[in-house]
Amino acid sequence: MRYAKPKSIDEALALLADGSWTLLAGGTDFYPTQGNRPVRDDVLDLNGLQQLRHISQTDSHFVFGARATWTDIIRADLPPAFDALKLAAREVGSIQIQNSGTIAGNLCNASPAADGVPPLLTLSAEVVLRSASGERVVGLADFILGNRRTARAPGELLTAVRVPRRPPPAIRISSSLARGAISSSRSPWRRPASSSTRQASCRMSCCRSAPVRPWRRGFRRSKNGCAKLVLRVMSPA
Amino acid sequence: MSMDRLSVSFTVNDEARQVQVPPLARLSSVLRDELRLTGTKVGCDAGDCGACTVLVDGAPVCACLVPAAGMEGASVRTVEGLANGRLSALQDSFLRHGAAQCGICTPGLLVTATALLEANPRPSEAEVQDALGGVLCRCTGYRKIVKAVMDVGTAGAPPPVALAGVGAAIPRLDGEPKVRGDDLFGADERPDDALSVAVVRSPYWHARFTFGDLDAFVKAHPGIIGVFTAADIPGRNRFGVIPPFADQPALADGTALFRGEAVATIAGERDAIASLDLSAFPIAWEELPHALTVAEARNGFAALHEDRKGNVLLEGTVERGDADAALASAAVTAAGSLETSYVEHAYIEPEAGYAFMDGDVLVIKACTQSPIMDRDDTAAILGLPAEKVRIIPTATGGGFGSKLDLSVQPLIGLVALKTGRPAGLTYTRQESMASTTKRHPAVMSATIGADAEGRVVGMVFEGDFNTGAYASWGPTVATRVPVHASGPYYTPSYRALGRAIHTNGPISGAFRGFGVPQAALMQETLYDELALQLGIDRLEFRLRNALRDGQPTVCGHVMDSGIGIAACLEALEPHWARAMNDADAFNAENRHRRRGVGVASCWYGCGNTGIANPSTIKMGIAADGRVVMHQGAVDIGQGSNTVIPQIAAEALGLPLDAFDFIYGDTALTPDAGKTSGSRQTYISGRAAELSGKALRERVLRYANVSDAAELSLKDGKLTVREGEASRTIALGDLPTDADGFVFAACESYDPPTVPLDAKGQGKPYAVYGWGAQMAELEVDMRLGTVKLVKITAAHDVGRAINPLLAEGQVEGGIAQGIGLALMEEYVPGRTENLHDYLIPTIGDVPPIETILVEVPDAEGPYGAKGLGEHVLIPTAPAILNAIRDASGAKITKVPATPDRVLAAIKAARG
Fold first, then answer.
1. ipTM beyond 0.90?
2. Which of B687, B516, B674, B700 is nearest to B618 (CA)?
3. Under a CB-based contact definition with an 8 Å cutoff, are residues B433 and B832 in contact?
């Protein structure tokens, strides 16, 4: 049982190369997963890595540091293409959860009901994975392999999520929840079972264990000019 | 760095604090256990309920999700930091608006709203809902919370407590500690030397088990003091809320009948229990076949309890006239069937408490709805005489029926008795949901017939209620359902059957309404069907059939006065006309979203069904000039700590600010019965009225004056004035009784009921409450989602002792009715948390207009009737009827989740 809170990414990567760690960032999945059992895993606490908490731009990309919280995303100055991501950010649990939960945690946790996945897929997002031996960039659709499974190797740290600057269509996502307000993204079983919840993400990422690329088909222009997700064509493959 | 303790320095409410804690300790635990700041509550430990919300560097976060290691240098604000010598404007507003009922979610709401108001001093309703959406409240229905936040600093002062008798809308008398965050709930107090208790529970629905080497387990775990099993129970290892049906072991003996059943407890030092891995506990399981549904359990499945053939716990029947002949002769009939789901009480406070020995008396301080029943059952289990067990209820963070049954009491009692040390236990959310009672899932069918003029001529009803592994309140549900399944309508010919059936599912017990809300769904949806067939307006159809004074109920009970259902329905008439117009106008403009309106009624008998149900209230005037009231009716948020004193003050003729209270403590207060069956305002209130009047009579007789005299108390002197004459009694000069009273009274009241005969005929209750609600909503025809627009609720309370608190009951009951109708479905084994099990949030409860109707009752104190359970009953059927009105969708299983609504829309289209 070890606990480490590295101050630099290199230090974190060195630790990751040496042993199997459970990563702790916002805690919004970490603690519920522990339940009331005592913590037995080796825990690598990423909250000392200040350099991972940012939202920035390069010539080619919008870059979200791994520790960017949903509140950070809501408050960030981003073009309209990111409206669906902001909408998803507002739907990630409550304000309390938005203040703690991180974008990378949402993706690495790979819940089939993760709010962040559908809008990030529509933005052609990629994830940056670093390890002691180097860095690779993987498309989000190839990163999430299934329910709670990702392409992240044990020695890798997801350091950033990036979105190419070419303007993808703005989309609007309809959700169909039994409870209109506040829904956590940790309950995958319920959604396919009732096929009633959050149909957009459900159809895209829930009924299949891995997400499909929504832009292959399924968009049409709506009256207000933004692309609109048509729910029925998102049926499971 | 290892998992060893870490020194963390941070500020809490501007005070520098340093703690030595494991780096991953939750901030909620650091605040509560290390710093003893128990105003921050823990409801789920998973970020779902928001009760533990604190501000970290100004931002609201769930303290249960924040590692201690991240707190270095941080600034934390908790509820304890909001008041500064006096209540903050927000706390004051919560108190004045009745935004705190039980008070368990109040600290989280206050902290979250404080952050909102600091950023946005005049938030809109939508902004309040957005900001507070992460804090669940199960009592209030949220509307008063919204109002309290929006009205901070603007509303006027409430009526002064001094003048508050019957009818005064005063804030709750026990409210200040709730908004300050220093009310002590079940988990908030533990002696320093208290042992912690962990419970080993069955992971299977039905299983035999044998223990391995328990002594070796204890020896292998430093800090663990002992393991206790059924073999250690000194008394009768059987309990139950209805003694003839007592069948539940405190610790299962060799066989567990449901998942979550307790089989052993482990007691140890706090840290040892906190770091204990229960997977290493030596127990071998042998899984046995199980039945989870009524259909499975009745279909040749071996009886779970030997003497209950076919797994039928109890069948209740009410029969009057020839229902079959009446239906055969009816001009129109409507028939249908309907199914409901398990519903979890989901109070934000999980069961908790501690026990300790005071000499040879076992004292248990825990949250509860029924201290005397706790005392008697715990004593029987532990082989003690009842007077050697003392129950002191803590503040109770919601109950709604489930905290009537024993939970932690025998488990901590056994440890305290065996070890001689205090022993504390706080259920985890998962434990609470898995092991305590639920609302009965029902499978019902019914046929109702009416004549051509729209008068109901007959009804037959049959319902199977899944009562789970043990009896709990199953017999009450089986009895209450057939008594109430007609609804508050004159039904001359009637046959109704309610069965409670055992399964290996969670135990179903008491939940606000005891099966009546389920039965009302069946009856009220068929009433809409009949009205549609007859072409009669749906509200008019109900008015035509509303029970009137002098007409017999289905039990043959004739009341000469006090039947208020017609008055409630009439109160809705203008709203109904307005809502129908609004819906038509909306639907003319919209195709994909359709608006609908629905109405449904309720009646509900207050107190036990046809059996004794007394309450006793003691009060007196002490030598120091204070009126002291021994008030044993437990306030679980519903308001009895305020309403019953208001009645007593009115009867006695002295102001409430002259009163002190001794609340439920089985050593100090007489039995005021359980907080259940909407009986406290009526029955304990009536006892308080009798007691107050008797005390007044004693004073008047001493002073030799008539009842026209006025009493006043000042500086230990009691002044009696009648006209010009005045006499002052120096209380300190007079002898006192054992309670320290100069004048004392102790009176009881038991409702005059007549037991039901074999056909369910009799006078099951002395007082009923009545109500009708109207739901307006929109259905999204493509998504199947339902958006509530407004609920209008008219409830006959006889006399509103405290209109503010009565409204709070209405709003809170409606919120639970919304959950029943639209989202709450406890799936055994799969939804043992508050993120898979959804209860309404602040964003799910629409505006509610409450109309308090007052048709006085001859039995109730000052005409008052019960209210608490009634309010939930009409909501769900009104919503279902509105869904059908909007979309054509006939819902046959609740909750009406979007997939069920969509399927029903498709079915209606053919």
1. yes
2. B687
3. yes
Pick from B264, B271, B191, B190: nearest CA to B223:
B271
User: Within 10 A of B906 (CB to CB), how many other CB atoms are there?
Assistant: 11
What's the mean pLDDT in B264-287?
A: 95
B266 & B408 share domain:
yes
* Interface list for A 78-107 with B (CB within 8 A): 93-97, 99-100
Q: What is the pLDDT of residue B554?
A: 98
Per the rule left: phi > 0, alpha: psi between -120 and 50, beta: everything else, B35 is: alpha
In a shared domain, residues B651 and B776? no
- Considering the domain architecture, whether residues B732 and B642 belong to the same structural domain is answered as yes
Measured CA to CA in angstroms, residue B374 lies from B116, B395, B673 at distances of: 42, 15, 11
Q: Which residues 154-193 of chain A have a CB within 8 Å of chain B?
A: 174, 176-184, 186-187, 189-190
Residues from chain B that touch A182, judged by Cβ atoms under 8 A, are 133-134, 841, 843
Tokens representing residue B413 in the block:
């009692």
Contact criterion met (CB < 8 Å) for A35 and B430:
yes
Which among B435, B452, B473 is the end of a domain? B435
pLDDT digits (tens, 9 = 90+) for A28-72: 999 998 877 788 899 999 999 999 999 999 999 999 999 999 999
CATH at residue B800: 3.30.365.10
Nearest to B768 by CA among B565, B491, B539, B623: B565
- B23, B59, B841: residue with CB nearest A179: B841
Of B822, B831, B841, which is closest to A182 when you measure between CB atoms? B841
- Global pTM? 0.94
pLDDT, mean of residues B627-653 = 97
CB B268 within 8 A of CB A29: no
Cα Rg of chain B (Å, integer): 27
| Strands, E assignment, B431-492 | 438-439, 442-450, 456-468
Q: Give B50's contacts in chain A (Cβ within 8 Å).
A: 94, 96
Residue B282 has which token pair? 């030596």
Considering only CB atoms, A32 lies closest to which of B46, B783, B843, namely B46
Q: Which residues make Cβ contacts (< 8 Å) with residue B739, sequence separation at least 6?
A: B618, B620, B628, B630
Cis ω before A211 (30° cut-off from 0): no
Q: A27 vs B67: CB contact, 8 Å cut-off?
A: yes
Report how far apart, in Å, the C-alpha atoms of B596 and of each of B113, B220, B524, B788, B900 are. Answer: 34, 65, 16, 10, 17
CATH number at residue B220: 3.90.1170.50
Please tell me the predicted confidence (pLDDT) of residue A210. 42
Q: pLDDT band for position A133 (50/70/90)?
A: very high
Distances from the Cα of B396 to the Cα of A149, B49, B634, angstroms:
42, 17, 8
Chain B residues within 8 A of A181 when measuring between CB atoms: 129, 133, 841-844
From B106, B139, B160, the end of a domain falls on B160
Of B129, B428, B835, the CB nearest to A186: B835
**Which residue segment(s) compose the domain that B27 sits in?**
1-160
Chain pair A-B, CB pairs under 8 angstroms: 155
Give ∠ CA B156-B160-B163 in degrees, rounded to 5.
140
| A119-to-A93, A186, A229, B175, B405 alpha-carbon distances in Å | 16, 18, 11, 45, 47
3-state SS, one letter per residue, for B523-584: HHHHHHHHHHHHCCCHHHHHHHHECCCCCECCCCCECCCCCCHHHHHHHHHHHHHHHHHHHH
B227 to B235, B265, B418, B786: CA distances (angstroms)? 18, 6, 11, 50
Q: How far is CA B157 from CA A209, B122, B169, B751, in A?
A: 57, 20, 11, 38
> Per the structure, how many domains does chain B have?
4
The domain ranges of chain A are 171-234
Q: What is the DSSP letter of B806?
A: H
Instruction: Specify the pLDDT at position B611.
Output: 94
